[in-house]
Amino acid sequence: MDRILQLNTIFISIVIEAIPFIVVGALVSALIEVFVTENMIVRIMPKNRFLSVIAASLIGALFPGCECGIVPIAARLIKKGVAPHAAISFMLSGPIINPIVLFATFIAFGDSWRMVWYRAGLAIGVSILVGFILSFIVKESPLKLKVDEHVHDHSHQNIKQKLISVITHTIDEFFSVGKFLVLGAIIAASMQVYVPTKILTTLGGTKVTATLVMMALAFILSICSEGDAFVASSFRYSFAQAQGSIVAFLVFGAMVDIKNLVMMTGYFKPRFVILLISLISSFVFIGSLLL
Questions:
Q1: Which single residue of 55, 155, 210, 279 could bond 245 by disulfide (Cβ 3.0 to 4.6 Å)?
Q2: CA separation for the pair 206, 240 (Å, rounded)
Q3: For the packed helices 270-289 and 114-137, what is the interaxial angle rounded to 10 degrees?
Q4: What is the dihedral of CA 61, 64, 65, 66, to 10 degrees?
């Protein structure tokens, strides 16, 4: 009974923490759907694949959100004509390099800029590398067919009609993403209750194992990127090789956690999700070992 109550508490806390960002993500996605045209995107995004990946990675700094609501935004951008590799680079970097997350990281680590630069640097590096590789591998839309089916032309609407459309799309997007959030939160809460963190922390005796353990913890705990730095800072003295593994926790968890993975499987084709997770895991692991 105690474990069920604990699971219920963790589940509710995850959902409550994520809902505001789901709403923001759904709203931004709806605004893109209604007000952003394909011609606008064509004019803004660089034609060169490498420059488009860099631009998309850095644009993430302008969006004060977390990984909870970034997936539908990325999917909407792809549907609007943004190259998949650029949209994914934006999806990976946005939840990490935006000002709110970086400021929270600064505070969590005792007003120190070192961890902020390490986190932002590795996030941008991974998002660029993953995007660049995807630009050569992915030749067609990675979206599931159902995501591509609903294409609406809002160009003929007046401002009032567009605002109504934004509200309608926001509500539809919220409930569409919400079911993935609930499923992901249940899985994450179950993992936290039934997989004791002590089992994982005892394995982190070397730099390699510490990094793998912290990546696993980031995936299991599924904490929003606005709050994960405060949890990460508590692990500073748990491992002999802490710095790289802590950065791995901060970057990997904001790119891939349980609830985020469930959302991705709802929007993207399974093969693409497997490829994406493999690339992210490899680059985060290698990058953190170099710190």
A1: 210
A2: 7
A3: 140
A4: 50
Place of tokens 């709403």: 23
The single-letter DSSP state of residue 44 is H
**CA-to-CA distance for 232 and 221, rounded, in angstroms?**
11
Element (H, E) at 89: helix 84-97
Residue 36 in this model has a pLDDT that exceeds 70: no
Single out the residue of 142, 167, 148, 170 nearest to residue 271, CA to CA. Answer: 142
Structure tokens at 224: 């929003």
CB 15 within 8 A of CB 182: yes
Residues 6+ apart with CB under 8 A from 261: 184, 219, 273, 277
Nearest to 13 by CA among 231, 234, 245: 231
What is the C-alpha separation between 34 and 72, in angstroms, rounded? Answer: 14
Q: Quick: pLDDT tens for 75-93.
A: 888 888 889 999 999 999 9
Counting every residue, how long is the chain? 291
CA torsion 75-141-269-32 (nearest 10°) is 10
Dihedral, CA of residue 87, residue 89, residue 91 and residue 92, to nearest 10:
170
Q: Strand pairing partners for 268?
A: 143
CB 86 within 8 A of CB 46: no
DSSP lists the bridge partners of residue 143 as 268
pTM score of the predicted model: 0.78
